[in-house]
């Protein structure tokens, strides 16, 4: 068992599998976009994990100033039958053996009263109506939320007290980044240009609304939302034959 990580500590680089690629470098994930919000939850088949994974996917467009990745205690090869590179707009890291969970000392608890919040009970009740049955006495994996910078240094850390003690959705993640002042600042030159344009626009007379032939105002165009960038698919070996998470096993040492 490892030790709990805290703000200022550095998460080691490691190799990980996803349902659609194997032996990916965590340092590449950090280099793609930061700050990176890394959320650890239970296995992907757990109703609460599935609920939040779906929420993050549906609200992903609200996350403007950071990246997101979800870690689950599931086998990559088992999930590969249903999850492809375009299924989720964020990476899904698989750690069935709990290597990272043990290294970060993310706790488990067998007490339902200690692990389920009111929201958790509601999600579980709905799942039972659909046929979900949890084995009695099975330890429940509690979550962990980290925010990391480009070199893996922890900027924010929260060990969840219940299974739902994670950001509610991507809008909440964006609000957290803004609250922690982890959103990028606008360069002074751009800010000056914006202020100058704003002043000029204030001096112009208001534009009269255009009308169609029948005297109706043209309808406003619908908002265009840029689609999430597809997750890169690698030419990977058989997922079942690779290690799930290889901690301290990044062959590319720091220069």
Short description:
This protein has 255 residues and is an alpha+beta fold. The chain has one domain: Glutaredoxin (3-Layer(aba) Sandwich).
Characteristics:
AhpC/TSA family protein; 8 helices; 255 residues; single chain; Glutaredoxin; alpha+beta; Thioredoxin-like_sf; disordered C terminus; 16% strand
Question: How is this structure best described in words?
Answer:
This protein has 255 residues and is an alpha+beta fold. It has one domain (14-182, 228-247): Glutaredoxin. Helix content is 27%, strand content 16%. It has helices at 26-32, 47-58, 76-79, 99-103, 112-115, 118-129, 170-179, 188-203, and strands at 14-18, 21-25, 36-40, 67-72, 92-94, 108-109, 140-141, 144-148, 154-159, 245-247. A 5-stranded mixed β-sheet has the order 5-4-3-8-9, with no helix packed on it. The chain is globular. It starts with 13 loop residues before the first strand and ends in an 8-residue tail after the last strand. The relative contact order is 0.24. The model is unreliable at 186-191, 210-237 and 248-255 (pLDDT under 50).
């Amino acid at each position: 068992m490892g030790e709990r990580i805290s703000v200022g500590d550095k998460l080691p680089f490691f190799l990980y599998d996803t349902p659609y690629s194997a032996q990916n470098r965590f340092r590449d994930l950090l280099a793609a976009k930061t700050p990176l919000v890394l959320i650890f939850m239970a296995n992907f088949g757990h109703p609460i994990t599935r609920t939040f994974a779906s929420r993050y996917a549906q609200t992903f467009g609200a996350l403007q100033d950071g990246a997101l990745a979800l870690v689950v205690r599931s086998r990559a090869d088992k999930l590969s039958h249903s999850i492809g590179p375009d299924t989720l707009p964020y990476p899904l890291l698989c750690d069935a053996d709990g290597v990272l969970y043990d290294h970060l000392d993310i706790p488990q608890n067998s007490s339902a009263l200690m692990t389920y919040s009111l929201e958790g009970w509601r999600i579980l009740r709905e799942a039972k109506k659909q046929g979900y049955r949890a084995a009695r006495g099975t330890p429940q994996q509690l979550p962990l939320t980290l925010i990391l910078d480009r070199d893996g240094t922890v900027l924010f850390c929260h060990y969840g007290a219940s299974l739902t003690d994670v950001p509610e959705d991507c809008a909440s993640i964006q609000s957290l980044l803004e609250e922690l002042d982890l959103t990028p600042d606008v360069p002074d030159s751009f800010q000056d240009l914006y202020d100058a344009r704003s002043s000029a626009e204030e001096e112009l007379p208001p534009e009269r609304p255009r009308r169609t032939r029948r005297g109706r105002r043209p309808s406003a165009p619908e908002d265009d939302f840029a689609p999430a960038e597809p997750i890169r698919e690698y030419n990977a070996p058989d997922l079942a034959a690779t290690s799930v998470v290889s901690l301290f096993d990044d062959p590319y040492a720091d220069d």
